Amino acid sequence: MAEDEKKTPETEASAAEGGRDDERSEAVPDSIVEEVDTAASEEGAGDTSTVDQPEAPAAEAAAPAEAAAPAEPQEVLEPKERRARRRAARSQAASGPRSPEERQAERQAARAHKAKLRRNYRLRAKTKEAERRAAEPPREPDQAPEHGPGRAKIRQGIVVSDKADKTIVVRVDVTRRHRRYGKIMRTSSKIHVHDERNDAGTGDTVRVVECRPMSRTKRWRLTDVLEKAK
Question: What pLDDT digit, counting tens, does each position of 34-45 carry?
C-alpha cells in the first residue's frame, strides 16, 4: 500500500502510454511491419533522386530569363540632330594647311560629283516626261497639228496687202472697254499670214489661226475667206 500511495499522476500517465504501445506492438503482425519498413526505405531512396532533379530545371529557366531581358533603350534623336550627326560623320577630320594644288583637286572632284548628280537627275526627268507623254491621250482633231500644246488662237481681220507670194497682211481690229474709266478703246494690229494658194485679196475679210513659225514674221495661217471685197 505504501508503494501505491507513492505513485504520482505523471508516473501513472507514462505507465498507461507504455501499456498502450505494448498493446499496439502486439496487435500489429511482423509481416506488416516488414512491408512498411521496405516501403519507407524505397521512398527514402526515391526522395534523394527527387531532391536533385529540380536543380536542373531551375538553371534552364534562368537562362531564358537572362536572354529575354529587355535591351537598353536606344537614344531617340530629332531629325535635325540626325542630319547634323550624318554631316559630321561625312566631314573629314581637320588637317593641317593644304597646298593650292590640293584645294584645286578637291574642287574639281566636287564639281565632277555634282555634274554626275545633275546628269542622273536630267536622265530621270527625261524618262519620266517620256512616260507621261506616252500615257497622254491623242490630240483633238480640231487642233492645228503644227501648233504646240494648248488651243490655237483664232482671229478675224481684213486683208490690207497681198503683194507678196503666199503671204498676206491682215489688220485685226480690237474694240474693248477700259476697266476703270469705261471708255471705248479701239486698237488695231497687223499680222503676216501664210496663204498657200493665194486665195485672199485686198479688202477681203478672213479668218486666221495661230501656227508654227513659217518665216521670220509669219506666225499665222489662213483658214477661211469669210467675205470677198466688192
Answer: 555 555 555 554
Which domains does the chain possess? 154-227 (2.40.50.140)
58 grid coordinates: 531551375
- Look up cell 537572362; give the residue: 66
Q: State whether the Cα torsion 32-33-34-38 is positive or negative.
A: positive
Q: Cα torsion at 124, 130, 135, 137 (round to 10°)?
A: 150
The residue with cell 505513485 is: 7
Strands (DSSP E) contained in 5-152 are: none
Sequence-distant (≥ 6) Cβ neighbours of residue 214 within 8 angstroms: 194, 221
* pTM exceeds 0.70: no
Q: How deeply is 143 buried, as exposed, middle or buried, from its count of CB atoms within 10 A (0-12, 13-18, 19+)?
A: middle
Query: CA-to-CA distance for 107 and 111, rounded, in angstroms?
Result: 6
> Is the pLDDT score of 5 beyond 50?
no
Query: Which of 166, 167, 162, 164 has its CA nearest to residue 229?
Result: 162
String of DSSP letters for 128-176: HHHHHHHHSPPPPTTS-TTS-SSPPPEEEEEEEE--STTEEEEEEEEEE
